[in-house]
Amino acid sequence: MKLYALCDIDTLRKSGVDILSFAKRAKYLGASVLQYRNKHSDIATIKTELIALRQIWEGFLIINDHYELASFCDGVHIGQEDLYAIDADPARAVKILKMTIGEDKIIGLSTHNECEIEIANTLDLNYIGLGAYRSTQTKSEAKVLGDRLDAIAALSKHPVAAIGGVRLEDRFNNVTYHVIGSGLL
């Protein structure tokens, strides 16, 4: 199991934890990927926090959604809505994204079901996120896959990151990364 830490700023603020402390905890627990997610701050604040994270984070640093800031990271993770906002054709959307962020950057895509994995299998991605495994406070509308997640993950040609309510002790056969957010606090 590889650990992928989700650094959600809203969750950290509610818990009274700063991002650098979270990153240090993730590093201590062996995370190799850190995804920075900030849905409510302005671009200047997000950029400043990414630069601060890059100073202490030696693993892969991924920005959630804000691909215009990918130059400060190793890649970007986008959701289904973000993909289709780039272009109605997902293959063309990924090509546009690659042209925008650079061929050397990692691209991850959230998926939630077999149909989205089938489409993702046709795309030039580095990994997919699949979930939610359990319900979470950050994505209350997410459909919970529960024990079906592992079987659905087996359909992916890309490495799979299990997302949504995943805990350190969870085990999957067809998942490369466990995405842990507040569970690292």
What does this structure look like?
It is a single chain. Helices cover 34% and strands 23% of the residues. It has 185 residues and is of the alpha/beta class.
How would you concisely characterize the structure shown here?
By secondary structure, the chain is α/β, with parallel strands linked by helices.
Question: Helices, strands, pairings?
Answer:
Elements: E1 2-8, H1 9-15, H2 19-28, E2 31-37, H3 43-56, E3 60-64, E4 75-78, H4 80-86, H5 90-101, E5 106-111, H6 114-120, E6 127-131, H7 149-153, E7 160-163, E8 177-180
Parallel strand pairs: 1-2, 1-8, 2-3, 3-4, 4-5, 5-6, 6-7, 7-8
Largest beta sheet: strand ordering: 1-2-3-4-5-6-7-8
Number of strands: 8
Instruction: Report the β-strand fraction as a percent range.
Output: 15-25%
Mean pLDDT level = 93
> How helical, in percent, are the residues?
25-40%
Tally of contiguous helical segments = 7
Helix and strand element order:
EHHEHEEHHEHEHEE
Shape: globular
Low-confidence regions: none
Rg for CA atoms: 15 Å
Measured distance between first and last alpha carbons: 19 Å
Sheet bearing the most strands, described? 8 strands, parallel, barrel
Structural class computed from helices and strand pairing: alpha/beta
